[in-house]
Amino acid sequence: MNNKPDAIVFFDLDGTLLTSDVTVAKSTIEAINILHKNNIMPVIATGRTVCEVQHIMKQAKIDSIVAMNGQSVFYQGEHIFSNNIDISVIDKVMAYSKTKTNIPLSFYSDKIMRISELSDPAIKFYQYLKQSVPPVDQDIYRNEPIQMLLLLCEEGEEQYIKLFPELSFIRNTPYCVDVFNHGGSKAFGIKKLLENKKFSDVPTYAFGDGLNDIEMFELVDHPIAMGNCVEQLKKLAEFITDDNNNDGIAKGLNKFGLI
């Protein structure tokens, strides 16, 4: 691939690049191979962290990622941006969770995932992701920069939203809420990538299905919704492709002449 791609395509993971059995479809892998040949850069844009999805990136042959809803960005393996949450802010969230809500937390960075306690909400959430539950370490944020927290809950985030205006809260699954510095989003991370690499004139496309894809859809030139997406995303989409289990990625890329 040339130093400057002819286009960039951003792919959400869960419900988009990944099928329901949390794998990358053969048609998607073949389509991404063609993107590379056509000098088009595929980039993952996800709520997940880098260490969590390295096996997926390897399978899909993608080495660029906007991770943790834009809080960390890698381009072709080069780390170009991180947006760390201040320790004092995490202290306050931890104290409120312990004394008021009893909602456990997860701590995410590029390198690690930890949980504040082994609890039923943690087990339920990571079973939903088909992942092992991370180790317990409620003090990890004092030793490692943290870019994202998770509230492991099915409800109750509204009180946090009122109390912590310095943070953004996005429900990403039925069992967790992503928490990061206010103003952060996939669009925020994408802007950092485009600015850093001087790609402001490169056409951009994005595939997504969830609420944390809204800002990304508002930013890119060509937003493409999966057939299984939430209703809010359909209103922003230039095109609605098939769902994630029926070659939606390949069909969408073909629709726009990218493959």
Structural overview:
This protein has 259 residues and is of the alpha/beta class. The chain folds into 2 domains: 7-82 and 184-255, Rossmann fold (3-Layer(aba) Sandwich), CATH 3.40.50; 87-181, Hypothetical Protein, Haloacid Dehalogenase-like Hydrolase, Chain: A, domain 2, CATH 3.30.1240. 34% of the residues lie in helices and 22% in strands. The protein has 10 helices and 13 strands. The protein has helices spanning 13-17, 26-37, 50-60, 87-101, 120-128, 158-163, 186-196, 214-219, 231-234, 248-255, and strands at 7-11, 40-45, 65-67, 72-75, 78-82, 105-108, 113-115, 148-151, 167-173, 176-181, 204-208, 222-225, 239-240. An 8-stranded mixed sheet has the order 5-4-3-2-1-11-12-13, sandwiched between helices. Helix 2 (26-37) packs parallel to helix 10. The two termini are 15 Å apart. The model has no long low-confidence stretch (mean pLDDT 95).
Q: How is the secondary structure organized here?
A:
Blueprint: E1 7-11, H1 13-17, H2 26-37, E2 40-45, H3 50-60, E3 65-67, E4 72-75, E5 78-82, H4 87-101, E6 105-108, E7 113-115, H5 120-128, E8 148-151, H6 158-163, E9 167-173, E10 176-181, H7 186-196, E11 204-208, H8 214-219, E12 222-225, H9 231-234, E13 239-240, H10 248-255
Helix pairs in contact: 2-10
